[in-house]
Design the sequence.
């Protein structure tokens, strides 16, 4: 391993010999002295080389020639003398170059610039990811996920890996990707819904999964992707969807606490966002009341089915922030008509479900519910939705050999990160975005 | 949430009122007294009900009727009186039933029994998973993965989620699943190889991913699946594949230490396995020497290409165990002819690569290597393997705009767990196995 000091660590490193390694961000090739700004995954540092091939007694200077030839983006490892120097704007220190090892030369012309369009940047995503903001996004996501998993583990959940290849549809025939599978065909899972529910009759009690899901959704909005990371959890012995919300909010508090601690300042510096770690309970408002509030605010939801559209989500989120001081709101008790057949309905009123959407900073990030575990009711509800119970046999079997009451939620990872950082599109936060027109790189 | 005491916790719970919840493992419906063995995700407990509808002064006994009607596998929640009693074989305690809430009734006849074939058990995997051994496997895997991720996080690796939908092949055209993708087609990633390498020119430094990978491999061996969980890591600024092995062994030590601490005794009890946490360095033996050792042991490898077959892997593993006391061995410096084009070759000898396979308890679990990062060499090696560089353009671009030396490995999660527990097939350890003939449930 190249023994190197990360740029972030230089400030706490005493003056003296160091090795740093990264890529060339800029070169200032001046007459008497040359400067390189070298960036690694933790920051940028100024490297300096006073030329010896100029002035009154010029001598050969192979390093000067090396530096003059450097192209932006070239990776190199530099050994030199670290010196704290308050006059240096970049971190108050610089490294006087002793030797330069070029590890990987970059083509002279970088194909993108800071002001390139998002589409162009996605074409060259591996260069776009070099921007410090992109590195921070990746670290924020890493910290967030690890905090979620640690919360689950501390609370005795089992991690599962559900299959992404299925013989039949998971939720609906629409928006399914079809896969050639030997002599037959398969489908890509739109969600782990059925399989995470399976863990309940399997007696696992409490499970979680963070994994890709696939939707052949031809839309081009800022919040849709054909492949996305779904954060899922499902657990037994709940009394209602309120128990699901309780787990959900604790989990988010754990995730956001970790992000705030580790990256709070960096997030504010990079994105101008000062986010607060929420406290439980998050406000809970039934959908019917949300509709009233939004209508009273002067907005008529243009959807015929009574579901919230993005503008209504934005408005209720704003209202909750103003009236309850919360960035999160659970919109509960969705109409049965706009929920899948497996959501359990209220005992007294079959027209509404024991379900919720979680809205965060103006957009929906998650859907949760208690599941219907009584197989006869489940079959009735499937039929009512126009589904053929015969095609659901493998799923219905889960409920025929004993099953506890259970529920859970699925949450879009990229949406959470996008909304946390106040970014305009999930394309900014996904490592390699996949959309109807984008399969590369 | 149903407030319940997990069976595991009963031993440390004082005598008195408790609620337990789980499924019926057995019912002994005797004349004067009824017994239920109730299992939850942590263990089994005996519930007892002395009948009141028999004897000299019989009174109505609705609970007795409830118990008589119970089917195996039914989920229920029981409130009663916990009492320590040394005479009770099952854990030295029992719960005298106060009331029974049936949550989910099971069909009378369970479709599988303990001695059902693996194929039949996989048909009813959600019932098979109720076996305590299966629950333990899921917990061992959970602990192992979390320890890996924690090691990565502690060592400042970034978690990435690479896309599983690709426009072109990741390694070879063979064994690729094709997906209908709007007006065009896509392929399922066989590994995150190209995309995790992309994190290096992206300046991420060190990355990891645990995610599904897909191979249209028609074989039916005990170690192959068409969908499997791949444990991947990739990092910059290595000097050779030895640096990759150093990371790999530290990671495995972290994972196995956690498993030993949390589940060591349970593993021995359930599987008769007493595994040792390995120490670094694991033995490293070049492939050429492994061939000699295996040949000297009297086994002629039947493969024409000089690669190890499963029997040779078993034999070298046995030899290393006998001669070095290690369950692990890195077989290094594979012939260039049997390695992919992107493995870096030795400076002095282009016929061998800076690569390794890791063999554990008799079978290969992982392949690692330093990657070729010089684009001209990479193109030459691709051509030599009969690949068309034009089809690899998006990948070759990663190396044209600056890239540090790097390497990494991919490891099959199910294989590690199978070999750790001494199980005969990965089908026993995968939540829902996918093979050429199996897409359900």
Sequence:
């Amino acid at each position: 391993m190249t023994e190197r000091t990360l740029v972030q660590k230089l400030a706490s490193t005493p003056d003296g010999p160091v090795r740093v390694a990264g890529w060339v961000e800029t070169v200032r090739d001046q007459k008497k002295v040359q400067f390189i700004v070298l960036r690694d995954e933790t920051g940028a540092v100024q490297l300096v080389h006073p030329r010896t091939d100029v002035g009154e007694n010029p001598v050969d200077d192979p390093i000067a020639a090396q530096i003059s030839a450097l192209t932006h983006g070239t990776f190199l490892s530099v050994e030199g003398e670290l010196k704290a120097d308050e006059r240096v704007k970049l971190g108050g220190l610089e490294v006087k170059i002793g030797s330069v090892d070029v590890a990987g030369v970059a083509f002279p012309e970088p194909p993108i610039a800071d002001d390139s369009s998002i589409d162009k940047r996605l074409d060259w995503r591996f260069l776009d990811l070099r921007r410090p903001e992109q590195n921070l996004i990746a670290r924020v996501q890493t910290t967030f996920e690890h905090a979620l998993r640690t919360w689950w583990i501390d609370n005795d959940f089992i991690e599962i890996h559900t299959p992404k290849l299925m013989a039949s549809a998971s939720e609906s025939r629409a928006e399914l990707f079809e896969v050639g599978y030997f002599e037959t065909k398969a489908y890509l899972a739109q969600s782990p819904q059925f399989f995470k529910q399976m863990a309940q009759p399997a007696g696992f009690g409490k499970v979680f999964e963070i994994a890709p899901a696939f939707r052949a959704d031809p839309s081009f909005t800022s919040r849709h992707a054909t492949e996305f990371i779904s954060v899922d959890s499902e657990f037994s012995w709940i009394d209602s969807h309120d128990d699901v919300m309780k787990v959900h909010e604790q989990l988010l508090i754990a995730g956001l606490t970790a992000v705030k601690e580790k990256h709070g300042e960096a997030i504010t510096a990079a994105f101008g966002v000062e986010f607060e770690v929420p406290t439980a309970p998050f406000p809970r408002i039934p959908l019917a009341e949300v509709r009233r509030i939004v209508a009273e605010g002067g907005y008529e939801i243009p959807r015929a089915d009574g579901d919230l559209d993005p503008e209504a989500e934005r408005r209720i989120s704003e209202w909750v922030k103003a009236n309850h001081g919360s960035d999160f709101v659970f919109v509960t008790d969705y109409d049965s008509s706009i929920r899948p057949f497996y959501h359990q309905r209220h005992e007294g009123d079959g027209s509404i479900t024991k379900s919720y959407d979680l809205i965060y900073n103006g957009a929906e990030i998650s859907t949760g519910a208690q599941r219907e575990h009584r197989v006869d009711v489940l079959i009735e509800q499937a039929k009512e939705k126009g589904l053929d119970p015969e095609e659901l046999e493998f799923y219905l079997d889960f409920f025929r050999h004993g099953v506890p009451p259970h529920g859970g939620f699925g949450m879009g990872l990229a949406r959470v990160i996008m909304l946390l950082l106040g970014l305009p599109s999930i394309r900014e936060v996904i490592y390699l975005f996949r959309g109807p027109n984008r399969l590369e790189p």
User: Anything to note?
Assistant: Residues 7-104 of chain B form a domain with the OB fold (Dihydrolipoamide Acetyltransferase, E2P) fold (CATH 2.40.50.140). The longest helix of chain B spans residues 241-271. Chain B has two domains: 7-104, 125-428.
